[in-house]
Amino acid sequence: YCDQQAEELGRMFREIHQDWLPGLTAGTAVSRAKSQILLHKLHQTVQADWNLMESGAFAAFEQIKTRLENAYMDHHRIEKLAEEYGISASYLRKLFLKHTGMGPKEYHMHIQNQQACRYLIFTDYPVREIAHFCGFYEEYHFSKIFKQLNGVSPTLYRSRQRNGE
User: How many CA atoms does the CB half-sphere of 45 hold within 13 Å?
Assistant: First the structure.
């Protein structure tokens, strides 16, 4: 980052730190909103740099990543996606590990989990329907995976999030 970008990012971090007050819902909400703005700014800056530095394989990675994010409810075979976009599956895995910190399958599951959390918090859909919306055939399998990733069942997660626990 250039000096001006670094200063702006530092200022944003300090504002988030100052606004966040544990236990106060308003402070947490403001900090979350500012954190999302900061992440967006970081993503824009880094993405511009990546596009200059990476080869065509990175463009394939970005397209596959976007596809996993937008079609999180679908079942994807990583080997088929890699072939479709003209990249080797092993190189695709390396790019995912480098840029997301996780493999493509793990990243897809992460996106499914994020969506499930949003459905649980912001809707009243039954867990069975949320499982279906997120690409799971069975509620049992969804609940098992959800608990592995979040430490609690979907129902308990919803209850805790809505009660501010």
Answer: 13
Q: Could you tell me the CA-to-CA distances from 42 to 65, 66, 93, 111, 112 in Å, in that order?
A: 18, 18, 23, 20, 23
| Paired tokens of 137 | 């055939």
Tokens standing for residue 112: 């499914």
Q: What is the mean pLDDT of residues 18-32?
A: 67
pTM for this prediction:
0.65
Q: Write the CB contacts of 78 (distance below 8 Å, at least 6 apart in sequence).
A: 89, 92, 93, 104, 105
* Amino acid in the structure at residue 51: N
Residues 73, 34: Cα–Cα separation, whole Å: 29
Helical segments of the chain, H only: 3-19, 25-53, 56-70, 78-84, 89-100, 104-122, 127-133, 139-150, 154-162
Task: In whole angstroms, give the CA distance from residue 20 to residue 31.
Answer: 5
Provide CB contacts within 8 A for 153, sequence distance 6+: 143, 146, 147
Q: Is the pLDDT of residue 58 over 90?
A: no
- Alpha-carbon separation of residue 78 from 62, 63, 75, 83, 114 (angstroms): 14, 13, 10, 9, 20
